Amino acid sequence: MATMKNRPSRRTLLTMGGLALIGLSGCQRKMVFNGIDVSGSEQGRDFELKDPEGKTRTLADFKGKAVMVFFGFTQCPDVCPTALVRAAEVKQLLGKDGDRLQVLFVTVDPERDTPEVLKAYTAAFDPSFIGLYGDLQRTAETAKEFKVHYEKVSTGSSYTMDHTALTFVYDPSGKLRLVLRHQQSAQEFAQDLRKLLL
């Protein structure tokens, strides 16, 4: 049987209750996203690819902006155009914060996606979008860093590319935070990006 001496005082209980509530409210403030939260992930730590002007680009070039990275190829019949149309819509939905978003399109088909082709392709969706490329080895290394799958699929005398259709999102400090699924809407993308741009 507890004695009066061992029993916690009313003030102690109130303090403990208050701390518990603070702890709970802290948990509730954790951001909830439509996409997959990959904060702290070891993938997609950086890249070193060229833009259509031949300038080497890394994540550090886009510090201060949210960055959306999508892997694809310019002859893609549906997934890639859909992803870039959605990205342009997301930029519009963000309003003035749209200027704080950088969209990067990384080609998995550098043999056909020349700098000129990449530049014209991304500009067709938004002049601010940047196409990035590397040689075959650099492309493979970059895809591995992001855990992105791609492969050539023969189509008679030519070929197409099978590839992962995910969008990777970095916060303005350059940390990978989200992976967004191709099935998600522009509104869902924009909701998540607004939280990262706060």
Structural notes for this entry:
With 198 residues, this protein is α+β, with helices and mostly antiparallel strands. The protein has a single domain (36-196), classed as Glutaredoxin, CATH 3.40.30. Helices cover 33% and strands 23% of the residues. It is built from five helices and ten strands, in the order H-E-E-E-E-H-E-H-E-H-E-E-E-E-H. Strands 1-10-9-4-5-6 form a six-stranded mixed beta sheet. Strands 2-3 form a two-stranded antiparallel sheet. Strand 4, helix 2 (79-93) and strand 5 (101-107) form a beta-alpha-beta unit. Helix 2 (79-93) packs across helix 5 (186-196). The longest helix has 19 residues, at 10-28. It is globular. The protein starts with 9 loop residues before the first helix and ends with a helix. Residues 1-5 and 12-28 have low confidence and may be disordered.
